[in-house]
Amino acid sequence: MCLRPYPGTVTLIATQSLTKTYGNRVTALSDLTVTVEPGIVGLVGANGAGKSTFIKIMLGLLEPTGGEARVLGLDPTVDGHQVRARVGYMPEHDCLPPDLSAAEFVTHMGRMSGLPKTTARERASETLRHVGLYEERYRQVGGYSTGMKQRVKLAQALVHDPDLLLLDEPTNGLDPAGRDAMLGLIERIGTEFGISVLVCSHLLGEVERICDALVAIEGGRLLRSAQLSDMTAVTEVLSVEVSEGTDELAARLAAVGLPVRRDNRLLLVPVLDPDSAGVGAGDSALDKTYDLILAAVAELDLPLHRLDQRRHRVVELFATDPARVSESTGAGTALEGAR
Amino acid sequence: MTTLDAPQTDRPAGVIHDIGYQRYDGARLGRRHLVGALYLHSLRTAFGLGRTIKAKIFPWLIVGVVGMIAAVLTAIRAQTGEAALGYAEFPEMLSVLIIFFTAIVAPELASRDLHSGVLPLYFARPLHRSDYALVKLAALTSATFLLLGVPLTVMFAGAAFMVDGIGAVWDELGDFLPALGYVAVHAIVYSVLALLVASLVRRRAVAAGAIVGAFLLTSPVVVVLSVLPYEAASQLGGLASPVTLVSGIGDWAFERSGEVGVGPYGPLYGLVALGLVVAGALLLLARYRKVAAK
Question: What is the pLDDT of residues B241-265, one digit of tens each?
């Protein structure tokens, strides 16, 4: 089957039976057929699932053993240079020379993408500012924190204003606050900057917050691919995260009549039924639930890390039987029905 | 775009991060520009320009030593009126310094990019892999050429003012220009070997040691061959080490003295050197084809 460039609407990434084996033994990707529309897309899978291989094929750095790939309507194995001119890549590993300043490095990388000298310099400082590096951009990268280094890596991928960003584990090594900041930044790039983003992560819970679509792979095979646009509405579940005393809080919330569910370090609390007792006439059920949780946290004097309304539990969506793979539409309706 | 500009002008300077992202739809330059930019960047890297003092110490130390030798030679000539050293002998005499220079600079150009992991960033851009390898080679060759060529030119300029008459200046030029060519031969042969070694080693210090080793390892072979009681063995022995290989070319093509004694094998020295450069460059290209796939 042949994939043509798509007139009109540009498909971001399309693969057809994409297969990549190293030598004869290791299969990194196996018969992967997936179509990704513009927006923020999460590519999720465990370590070794084939995410990095996928990205490298998209960049034209690796040739697939079988099947076809299209990026922005171009075949990366044939028009690799054209693809690479329009794509920004942020690798997972360390990739910064420690003895250059961020400004100089990003400028150089901009020139390597074909920007004229002065433009490269201007765009480098602009981009570094967008990722949150100001005066420190004149300091040597070697002295940066992990969070700052990740920002420089993002900036070098963004400096030439690509149409697509490929981010390989952008939150690696970051603390929770740094992770939130990085994810917020990626979300801004996708929404405000108008650049499509493919985010690789082994943490589904992380990328689901910012993605329009998710592609899950496992062992090089497609597990599930789903557009999340119809699922972005917040659910009637509040998630609470406290730095310590999670168990105490769970017990406390159960005692005040909130059916708590535990998910790792998170506590999931369904919003109270509006008709149930305890919800006053004036407040909404949501406010009442917030109040109850906040009161419980305050009484126990726990350090509250996060309290927000979560979106649909995509984890559950993706944890379904691998046999029922890749029904992009089915995923959405199944959830709609569950509401 | 007045609607966009208007709110920005009212903004206090403190909220600079609120300036919206600007898409870029200006020129994107092609392959020649990329090669040129990378070449200049690499040449600057070779001399530690745009980098810390630490990166400047070693290359400039060698530049200083070479410059001092050139200055002393020029001064001696001004005093005595006699050239202590022919132009063509200048690079040959400094071969140890060239080895040190390439051993310092080649790892900066090749190993550093490997070690810091920046290579995938280059190859994720429109830059061709072969261009990367060849540009690095060109940068190292140019840096080595400049290291010797500039002092040599200064020596020539000094001599040109000292000698009497325009005819003597022409004689000087006749000696000087082939010597520049000989410097170029030094630069390319030493650079190919040094960069090839550096492209295989991730750590700069190890790469530097390996480069010095690669140049010096086979010199005992040359010595042994030269003491054998066969004339051909000593005449061909120079082929065994890159240092004597280049000197052999000098004896054949650039010098009148011929102290290495290549006999009738001069053209062979030239061919072997050419083969070494071509093979080295091809290996370098192969190396970067492979490393990019990782």
Answer: 898 899 888 888 887 665 667 778 8
| Same domain, yes or no: A49 and A143 | yes
Q: How far is CA B109 from the centre of its chain?
A: 11
> Bigger pLDDT: A238 or B6?
A238
In a domain, residue A87? The reply is yes
The pair of structure tokens assigned to A17 is 């039976």
Contact between A161 and B128 using a beta-carbon 8 Å cutoff: no
Query: Given A61, A84, A89, which is nearest B126 (Cβ)?
Result: A84
B125/A129 touch (CB, cutoff 8 Å), yes or no: no
**Residues A270 and A175 occupy one common structural domain:** no
For the stretch A165-199, pLDDT in tens is 999 999 988 998 899 999 999 999 998 888 999 99
Instruction: Check A81 against B126: CB less than 8 A apart.
Output: yes
The answer to whether residue A320 sits within a structural domain is no
Separation in Å, CA of A299 to nearest CA in chain B = 38
Any residues with CB less than 8 A from the CB of A153 and at least 6 apart, and which?
A: A90, A91, A95, A96, A170
Nearest CA in chain A to B30: A114
What is the extent of the structural domain holding A153?
13-231
A304: domain CATH number?
A: 3.30.70
Total domain count, chain A? 2
* Shared domain check, A217 and A288: no
Q: Does B21 touch chain A (CB under 8 A)?
A: yes
CB atoms within 10 A of CB B171: 13
The rounded mean pLDDT for chain B is: 87
On whether residue A188 sits in a domain, the answer given is: yes
CATH number where A103 lies: 3.40.50.300
Torsion sign across C-alpha atoms B250, B253, B259, B261: positive
Query: For B128, which residue in chain A has the nearest alpha carbon?
Result: A81
Q: How far is CA A96 from CA A162, A226, B116, in A?
A: 20, 34, 6
Q: A-contacting residues of B 96-115, CB under 8 Å?
A: 112-113
